[in-house]
Amino acid sequence: MFLKGTVCELRVLEMSDHEAATFTKAVNAGLTTEWLWTGSIPMAPIDTLAVWKKEREAGSIEFGVWVEGKFCGTTGLYSKRDVYREWEFRILIFDPDCVGKGIGSEATWLVVAYCFRRMNGWRCYLGVNEMNERAVRCYRQVGFVQEGLLRDAIYTYGRYYNAVRMSILRPEWEELCKVRGVEITGPIP
After folding, report:
1. 100-138 burial, b if ≥16 CB within 10 A, otherwise e?
2. pTM, rounded to two decimals
3. Which residues pair with 129 in a beta bridge?
4. What is the assigned CATH class of domain 3-180?
């Protein structure tokens, strides 16, 4: 275990055969990937491992999302820009049994806290398909604010969709912590 919340825990992605096979099977099934921004299917576990390895070599911090001993998603910080102290946030809860239970929100909060407290980030940003209303609500709940709209930036299932750009700044997150009564120092909640 690396970061533990009340409904999930985040573990450093081991890039094991088990993780790759579980992830690949779920993504190929497409049960929770309707609004993904990028990616292609079908894919094989070896493809998944290659993508994860490439991301890690680029400096990304990748976590597996675990619920009661079950690997159900991935999340992390990507595309670090040192000068700006910013990271791109990504998450995919690929197990349909883990959707709609607050797992994505808690995992998002844990990664954002990690970004600001452990990585000394100033800005954490993301992009999301505007039709993914559940994800947009989740990000707003964690404190992300919309900063722009990329028109027809996503092409999936034979149609173009707008991408919503959102971000949260360290002072905004710290203020949200105060409002929620979350301690900013000490172990990440």
Report:
1. eeebbbbbbbbbbbbbbbeeebebbbbbbbbebeebbeb
2. 0.92
3. 163
4. alpha beta
3-state secondary structure the chain: CCEECCCCEEEECCCCHHHHHHHHHHHHHCCCCCCCCCCCCCCCHHHHHHHHHHHHHCCCEEEEEEECCEEEEEEEEEEEEHHHCEEEEEEEECCHHHCCCCHHHHHHHHHHHHHHHCCCCCEEEEEEECCCHHHHHHHHHHCCEEEEEEEEEEEECCEEEEEEEEEEEHHHHHHHHHHHCCCCCCCCC
Q: List pLDDT tens digits, range 127-159.
A: 999 999 999 999 999 999 999 999 999 888 788
